Amino acid sequence: MSEESQNAKPSNKVTQLGDFALQRELGQGGMGKVFLARQVSLDRLVAVKTLSRELSKKEGFIARFEREARSMAKIDHPNVLKIYAVDSAHGIHFAAIEYVDGQSLQKWLDQLGRLSVGDAVHLAIRCAEALRYAHAENMVHRDIKPDNILLTKKGVVKVADFGLAKAMDDDVSMTQSGTGLGTPLYMAPEQARNAKHVDSRCDIYALGVTLYHMLTGQLPYTGKTTLEVIMAKEKGRYASARTLRPELSERLDMIVDKMMAKDPAQRYKSCEDVLKDLQALGVQTDALSFIAGAEAAPVQRPVANVPLTAAAPGARKAGSTAPSFGSETATQTGTRIWYVQFEDAKGKSVVEKHSTGRILKMLAAGQLTAKAKAKVSADGAYYPLAQFPEFAKAVEDSIARRTAAIRKEDMKSLYSRVERDQKMFYLKRKVKDFFRNIFGVASLLVLLGVIGVALWFGWQYGAELPAKVAGMIGFGDSAEKAPNQPSTERTAVLSEGGIVPEGTVRPR
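== non-specific serine/threonine protein kinase ==
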């Protein structure tokens, strides 16, 4: 749908499809070829996307394609590519879509590598606004990626292929020519597992990957095959954007991480929440800096949902000077004086007089909160600042900043607790190692002492020890004499007793 070819001719002999006169071929995508055409009846340029012969043979797909195209035609948003018609002629099924005189975000990333922080956040906000509008119409894109984000020559962001991506999801293989690994690289993990049962959070994930790509010039997950990319996403480990680009703020890094959370339950629940956090950063550019002559994007924000009290400011009471919400009040200058009622740093309720400009500065500095009230005269009634057009946007921004600060503080508290637990773990391990080493040294000293005592006894009594042991068990000097040799004492006793030794002749 972007102008990528200037001289290419239509590849077939058909030069007109219904109300659309084909001029030249712009490119080819997963569905078929794309042509630049002129709508004869309204005399305007459009892009005509034709279905390939293979898809045209599938009656079920054609019916779904037409149904999704009609649903997409209901989306009327400045950042969503419009569908003008869906029809068939000469056996060719086609859709006429808004023509963009620029190129895709992917082409810009190929040229620039990465974008400035302000431009990246600007693009993410515009896409989130388009997705918020579509999700409110129960439309899920399911194929957000830089190829489907088009930029006009005036820097206007256009999200393409709403509805068409959903119709094609079950019918176009990821290996078909023109699709490659584009979809898996940005696809949410749950969508890879079951593309039929996903909700708007899959678009938030894909937009998070796109924002990561714009900020770092890299993709969080890569692989040589689709399976490798999907498996890497299932693990959920990637280098944080701030690691690759240290100048990024911690808040922006946390926003990207939350958009890309592997578990949908840990992700942003809606694009409204994404927008609040991105806008609260205050870093987005008014116009894209890398496009010469780019125009500033119009501010699009939802109307603040502030409940009105019984005595609403727009309904004056008799004798009351409460301000109305007419155009006169909305156009007051910053020199108007207000009576402001708020709580000071000590929690005490005070009333001060301030100009419009001063109140706006106090809201930006956090000196005033959404609880503050104001009135335009001494005898009027106080009403919340958010009910005055002069302060509605500032109060909304203040709430967004406070919410982001609370989340940041919660994350800091979590990090501190983790760090404290980790230090305690290392301390306990050191204590255990210390006592283990002490026990080991003591055991070694005892063993060495026992060995020393044994050696000392051996050295002192080594010569006498064998004889003592032998005597204790009955093996002394008498045991060494032969049993057939009686002692001298025994021989003498026998002689006195009249016993004659053997071999002697006793006289008669």
